[in-house]
Specification:
By secondary structure, this protein is an alpha/beta fold. The chain folds into 4 domains: about 5-130, 3-Layer(aba) Sandwich (Rossmann fold); about 135-255, Transcription Regulator spoIIAA, CATH 3.30.750.210; about 285-375, Transcription Regulator spoIIAA, CATH 3.30.750.200; about 380-430, OB fold (Dihydrolipoamide Acetyltransferase, E2P) (Beta Barrel), CATH 2.40.50. The chain is about 35% helix and about 20% strand. It contains 13 helices and 19 strands. It has helices at about 15-30, 50-70, 80-85, 85-90, 105-115, 170, 180-190, 210-220, 240-250, 265-270, 275-290, 310-320, 350-370; strands at about 5-10, 30-35, 40-45, 75-80, 95-100, 125, 150-155, 155, 175, 195-200, 225-230, 255, 295-300, 325-330, 380-385, 390, 395-400, 410-415, 420-430. α1 crosses α5 (about 105-115) and α12 packs parallel to α13. The longest helix has 24 residues, at about 350-370. The radius of gyration is 22 Å and the shape is globular. It starts with a strand and ends with a strand.
Amino acid sequence: MEKTFFVTNFGCRASQSEGASIHQELLESNITESQSAYDANVVIVNSCTVTDEADRQVRQMIRRVASRNPNARIIVTGCYAQRAPEELAGLPQVRYVVGNSHKPVVGEITLSLFDEDFSTHGRAEILCSDIFLERELIPASHLGSGGRTRAIVKVQDGCNANCSFCIIPSVRGRSRSIPPAAVIDEVRALVVRGYKEVVFSGIHLLPFKSSFYHLVCQALEVPGLERLRLSSVEPLEVIPELIDLVADHPRMAHHFHIPLQSGSSRVLRAMRRPYTPEYYSSLVERIRDRVPEAAIGADVMVGFPGETDAEFFETYRLIEHSPLTYLHVFPYSSRPGTVASNLPNPIPDHVSRFRAKSLRSLIASRNKDFRRKMIGREIEVLTLEDGSAISSNFVRVSVPPDCPVNEWIRVRVTGLDEDGLSGLQDHNRT
């Protein structure tokens, strides 16, 4: 049997980082990557379970692969696999369900499937144990070919915050971090392999606090690292020193993603979020003052149980008067076992959808204005494998098709292009 695989990732950047590690392990085992899940012998579905919609997308993907690729062996791993392994085990052609507790062995399991008589297996095998028994975070290599451009390095996993709506602590366990020295070793190795940009990610970086700032400073000292970007960082983690570092260091990406969730004080308290709308507004205004061209994004939840129209409009007005440039808007989704799942006064789906649509419309206009201000400027961008490029402030730029991949180029922004910008190359970076 030909040994081919395909990895499909759902969810956050930490999940994407884990998927990249599985992908790399299989490549180093001389297994061929398929261009599509529909012609691979083994398909690894790296799942998310943050909402009902995330669950639905995972199940839809599995059923689609089973329908279009009836000989495929499917391995499901990730957060959904940790939360509801039995549910996934009953889906067609699923051979293994591997929770986050056993995610490091997904590569080994994949290799074993190539020698298995697929016609003889019955119900999927489940590998899943208590995630709260995990006390250490093992560094995972993300090394790939120099042709790749950006690497996501997961420096932390798990969460101790226990927000009332969130299932993540129960599927990722207690907060634990990779030792700083191991993180820096990983950054050095990525630079040697030709990566131009490294992205630091985690589930909840608060245990780092000032030490996360020092970790970022250490990474910037790695010779050859050309750009460092931060993934989602909680409001209380964005200390003034970190903002100043992004403002002043030429190799820091001008990009912050800071979850908001709600602009209502009462809703934030019900969510068990440890900051106020006033604190959040002051924080993003400080960022805009220090880094005028920065992209500033947020996660926002609408339709939390008991959220009134007035409380929703508090969120709307905060965003309307803030310097935020993009949003990830989520209608509330009840997750089993969370505190919020037992709260009274659920919001009807059509109300949540209307509120989400209102915020998306608001931020679309804001984002368009943000990008329009870049027209006529010359900016430096990193060319990606999909034929586009990315700016320091997280804007996609369409570039000429003959631009080499994984190179810094300077482009003159000529106009808006769907959700990004269009540009003409001026000259290569010197």
